[in-house]
């Protein structure tokens, strides 16, 4: 018998044996079937066929300006897909079922909830390079492209930052990162580029350290590429060129020469991974919005 016939039989049996009404839903998966069962309450049968999914599902309450990547963006291979809902979501499985992600190259992955309003999806491993991605969130559609696999490895054992493009080394740069004082060590793990500033002011008072204290600072920094919301950047640090490639002297950032920082700034895209290893700082596990590859 068909699924529709089985559903009708169950409804009739409930009516005959219990004298109760019952609604039923038939759909390609159990989450859509749950939605369908609510359609004709208290005594109905609703069928969602594969070709009807886009028509019967109402647009989800997503904030388009907060979704990422944006339509037409080119991103790196570590970039997750983020969908921000207008209100906390209670039926998370139904919301996931209403989101379709299709790719030009095989990229198995999974959903996870960063908050009750923020659904994310990422591939199990980094995206395949040069993949086209289409997202349909309950009728709200956008597309983006994953570019080259531009992957950086920051190794505290050698004080170097090695950058590869599609598996081929493009540049190995001397660097200096968080000094070993049990407070400023750069944490190990997979970060990814989020935003870039050609010039910015770095001010220790923004995280509670007075500018006039021993560890305080307020200075103009150039060619800054953000890796985390906890204040980790790759940036130009001409004041530490003598230590780059030899020792760690920063407050946690990856210090490069101006030439190398400019090159990285110009070559990188949001979503490009940066892998830090061999630091005594322990694992990167800050709940800061960019720890997807560490927590999920």
Report a brief summary of the structure:
The chain has helices spanning 3-18, 30-37, 53-56, 92-97, 258-267, 292-295; strands at 24-26, 45-47, 74-75, 81-84, 99-103, 109-115, 118-123, 131-137, 140-146, 150-155, 160-165, 168-174, 189-192, 196-203, 218-226, 233-236, 254-256, 273-277. With 296 residues, it is α+β, with helices and mostly antiparallel strands.
Structure explained in plain terms:
There is one protein chain. The chain is 16% helix and 32% strand. The chain has a five-stranded mixed beta sheet with strand order 12-11-10-18-13. A four-stranded mixed beta sheet has the order 3-9-8-5. It has a four-stranded mixed beta sheet with strand order 14-15-16-17. With 296 residues, the protein is an alpha+beta fold. The mean pLDDT is 90. Strand 10 and strand 11 form a beta hairpin. It is built from six helices and 18 strands. The chain has helices spanning 3-18, 30-37, 53-56, 92-97, 258-267, 292-295; strands spanning 24-26, 45-47, 74-75, 81-84, 99-103, 109-115, 118-123, 131-137, 140-146, 150-155, 160-165, 168-174, 189-192, 196-203, 218-226, 233-236, 254-256, 273-277. The protein is elongated, with a radius of gyration of 25 Å.
Weakly predicted, low-confidence segments: none
Instruction: Give the number of helices.
Output: 6
The beta-strand count equals: 18
Helix proportion range: 10-25%
Mean pLDDT: 90
Secondary-structure element order, N to C: HEHEHEEHEEEEEEEEEEEEEHEH
Main sheet?
5 strands, mixed
Gyration radius (Cα, Å) is 25 Å
**Helix/sheet category:** alpha+beta
Gross geometry: elongated
Report strand %: 25-35%
Distance between the termini: 41 Å
How are the strands ordered across the major sheet? 12-11-10-18-13
């Amino acid at each position: 018998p068909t699924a529709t016939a089985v559903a009708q039989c169950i409804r009739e049996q409930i009516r005959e044996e219990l004298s109760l009404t019952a609604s039923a839903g038939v759909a390609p998966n159990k989450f859509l079937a749950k939605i369908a069962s609510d359609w004709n309450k208290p005594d109905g049968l609703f069928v969602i066929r594969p070709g009807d999914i886009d028509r019967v599902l109402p647009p989800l309450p997503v904030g388009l300006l907060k979704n990422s990547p944006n339509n037409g963006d080119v991103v790196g291979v570590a970039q997750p897909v983020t969908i921000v809902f207008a209100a906390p979501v209670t039926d998370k499985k139904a919301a996931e079922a209403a989101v379709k992600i299709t790719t030009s190259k095989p990229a198995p992955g999974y959903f996870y909830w960063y908050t009750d309003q923020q659904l994310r999806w990422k591939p199990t491993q980094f995206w395949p390079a040069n993949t086209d991605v289409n997202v349909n969130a309950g009728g709200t559609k956008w597309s983006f492209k994953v570019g080259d696999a531009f992957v950086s490895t920051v190794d505290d054992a050698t004080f170097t930052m090695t950058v590869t493009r599609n598996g081929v080394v493009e540049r190995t740069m001397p660097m200096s990162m968080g000094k070993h004082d049990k407070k400023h060590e750069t944490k190990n793990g997979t970060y990814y580029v989020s935003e870039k500033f050609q010039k910015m002011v770095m001010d220790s008072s923004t995280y509670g350290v007075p500018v006039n204290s021993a560890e305080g600072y307020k200075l103009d920094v150039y060619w800054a590429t953000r890796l985390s919301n906890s204040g980790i950047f790759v940036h130009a640090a001409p004041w530490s060129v003598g230590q780059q490639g030899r020792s760690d002297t920063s407050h946690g950032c990856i210090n490069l020469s101006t030439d190398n920082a400019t090159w990285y700034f110009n070559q990188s895209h949001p979503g490009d991974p940066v892998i830090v290893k061999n630091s005594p700082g322990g694992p990167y596990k800050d709940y800061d919005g960019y720890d997807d590859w560490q927590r999920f």
